[in-house]
Design a protein that fits this description.
Elements lengths: L1 H18 L15 H13 L5 H15 L5 H11 L10
Helix pairs in contact: 3-4
C-alpha cells in the first residue's frame, strides 16, 4: 500500500511540471464519501460560511499531499491560496 502511495506521489510530482503552463485549469470529479464525513463537512461549512465545499476539498487534498512529502510549488500554492485567501478572514477585508 505504501509503495502505491509513493508511486502516486511521484506521478503527481512529474505531472506538476506539465501543470505549470495550465495551472488555471480545473478538473471536476465525483466521489462517493461516507455519510458521516459529508455530515461533518456540512457542519463545518455551516459553522464557517466563508468556506465552501470546493475550497474545503482543495485545502484538504493539497494539505494531505504536502504532509505526505509532495514537493510541488503548485500544490503548495493551492494549499496556501485556499487557507489564506481574503475569504478566509470574512467580509471585513
Amino acid at each position: 500500500m505504501q509503495i502505491l502511495e509513493q508511486e502516486t506521489i511521484q506521478e503527481i510530482e512529474i505531472d506538476s511540471q506539465a501543470l505549470l503552463s495550465t495551472n488555471d485549469d480545473l478538473i471536476s470529479f465525483i466521489q462517493e464519501i461516507p455519510e458521516y464525513l459529508m455530515e461533518a463537512m456540512s457542519t463545518f461549512i455551516d459553522k464557517y460560511p466563508n468556506w465552501d465545499q470546493y475550497r474545503l476539498m482543495q485545502a484538504a487534498i493539497s494539505g494531505y499531499l504536502l504532509q505526505k512529502g509532495v514537493d510541488s510549488r503548485l500544490v503548495n500554492k493551492i494549499y496556501f491560496k485556499s487557507m489564506f485567501c481574503k475569504k478566509a478572514f470574512g467580509a471585513n477585508l
